[in-house]
Amino acid sequence: MTANELRSKYIEFFKSKNHVEISGQSLIPENDPSVLFTTAGMHPLVPYLLGEKHPAGTRLTDYQKCVRTGDIEEVGDPSHLTFFEMLGNWSLGDYFKKEAIAFSYEFLTSPKWLALDPRKISVTVFEGDENAPRDDEAVEAWKSVGMSEDKIAYLPASDNWWAAGPTGPCGPDTEIFYWVGEGVPPVGSNKATDSANWMEIWNNVFMQFNRVDEKTLVPLPKKNVDTGMGLERTNCILQGKTSVYLTEVFQPIIAKIEELSSYKYGSNPEKDKSVRIIADHSRASVFIIGDPKGISPSNVGAGYVLRRLIRRAVRHGMKLGIEKAFLAEVADSVIENFKIAYPELKANSSKIKSELTAEEEKFRLTLKKGEAEFQKLLPNLMKNPKKIISGKIAYNLYETYGYPLELTQELGQENGFTVDIEGFKVAEKKHQEASKTLDAGKAKGGLAEQSDITTKYHTATHLLQQALIDVLGEKVAQKGSNINNERMRFDFTFDRPMTQEEIKKVEDIVNQKIKEDLPVTMEIMTLDEARKEGARALFESKYGEQIKVYTIGRNSKTDWFSKEVCGGPHVQHTAQIGEFKITKEQSSSAGVRRIRAVIFGGLPLDSQ
Hints:
Layout: H1 3-16, E1 20-21, H2 46-49, E2 59-67, E3 83-92, H3 97-109, E4 121-126, H4 136-144, E5 152-155, H5 157-160, E6 161-163, E7 168-179, E8 198-213, E9 216-230, H6 231-238, H7 251-261, H8 269-290, H9 301-319, H10 327-338, H11 344-347, H12 349-381, E10 388-389, H13 391-401, H14 405-414, E11 418-419, H15 421-439, H16 452-472, E12 478-483, E13 488-493, H17 500-515, E14 520-526, H18 527-532, E15 546-555, E16 559-565, E17 579-589, E18 592-600
Parallel strand pairs: 1-2, 4-5, 10-11
Antiparallel strand pairs: 2-3, 3-9, 4-7, 6-7, 7-8, 8-9, 12-13, 13-18, 14-15, 15-16, 17-18
């Protein structure tokens, strides 16, 4: 079974269980400052897991592209990935543990579906603690489908409890593991453990409580199920492979790297690692740039992560002896491999390849600058009788100039120096700890903070986008936004800095629409209907899918200021927003401008 077939079968199965297929969303999260990328399949569904009604109903299924980059430097082993796909299904106040577990087990083991060997499956459940009892409901559900007691492992909250944060929705989860060792699990090794012979392939999260404080859990009136299956890992198991890089997901990409480097994968462990890093990082970069809200390499936030991915891939290409710009050629194989499931890659192929090539060439120049900087430092370094380059100096060369540690070691060695590797790691760790919270929320997947002020900011982005179009023209298109309790950030396509007069005009329009106290209304319609009504959107949804359209204006059909496809949350009328002030307008990346703005005052959200 190929990855494309697995993706289709999963959707087909859950459709047969009365789930509605919904569109996977952008890799760039909307209005969630807790994460830089969509990190899990549940991420775009947060408002609905918190109680908002989904236009498609209470049973949903999709496939979602995800990126996790908290440990980029560790990518390169046989299974770790930066970009991955998550297959998911959800119950929003509909079925619960018994049905969710039965669905999972049927899909995995039924001859009609994946036909995996039941003897090689084991599960984990929450063992209970002083705050919540053992999850016997999940245990009974597993036993009802034939799972024996000796294949159920009871683990603590650190392993089998999902929480949105210190307070809010939470509950136990049950994880499904598959034996990837030789034969069947030996007696005494039937339970899923951290052993390399067990691979986690599926997680069912049961959101059944609201955490009021550290010791108080209150049952939720509507209980939700959030599940996720890793496509690449399951695909690897179905094909009996020992590594995800040996499946058709990666083989065409690796074949292109072999062609460019004249190196045969499987010949040398260290070079194999370089091939895997190039394959993973180039695939992730293609999806990030090619996303409908795609970003460009930069020195901040998600753009900085993208830059690191590209430069690390280039560095490992150099290790394989590739001296020319090569990532655009690797990108072609990625696009060809995924164009059916993700047509946006084909549509954005020119942009993807030009961004990769520009960044790659810039990095090669950067390496020259780093080497020049090293030569400047050399006279002072020579005064050190111990002939040691400090970890701080080595890390500064890396952080400031992108100069890799191994190149510093090579240059040092040529001049009789060693590098303080431990000191480099300490400096690097300090940097990672300072920035890691930007990339991952503490929860499994992260949750956007939803408060009155962020709801006001979110609605203000609708007014801002339309005001920008009114002032600057139809070439303006949203490229992403980021909101927290203190400010909003809005990125949009435009090829020059705005004038002070234009900034003032935009600000005045937004404040005028707030002053007019326009109603904000929501209608559920199809994508085609939304297009006909003039709604603005990236239109990622599938044809015929039910979507939410928010209108700001006196009449949603004839007299409106803004109309957008959006998931929310929104105010009820614009006077609730308060006064709007643009604090900064600047470049975000090539052809993209960024506005920072704040709001003051406004009416309470429960005001009429």
